Amino acid sequence: KLFIAFITINYMQRRLGDARKIASERIEELFNEARKSFKSHPGRSHKYVRIALKISAKAGIKISREFRSNYCRKCKRYLESGVNARIRTRKGKVVISCFNCGNHRRIIIKT
Predict the structure, then answer these.
(1) Nearest-10 Cα torsion for 56, 46, 83, 71
(2) Which of 25, 41, 72, 110 is the most buried (most CB within 10 A)?
């Protein structure tokens, strides 16, 4: 019984790892598509971000640092600098402001 349980657990871990790998690839694809389609279809790019967030929540993985600053955490919309977001530096921080909901996100700059 112990051997069968070990095989089952090992198999499940391997399947979970595959699912996480597929999920991270799809999240990356969705953020790239959101970037490409923002000028012509902004609503579609917002939808891609919401789908990517749902995938990351279900798979239990974090969104990578490069994509984390590309969406508003409050209204879940894709942010493009100068179009629907403002990016400023103040006192050792980067402040990202969303024009849609008015949310401010502060990221500390490490020196």
Answers:
(1) -20
(2) 72
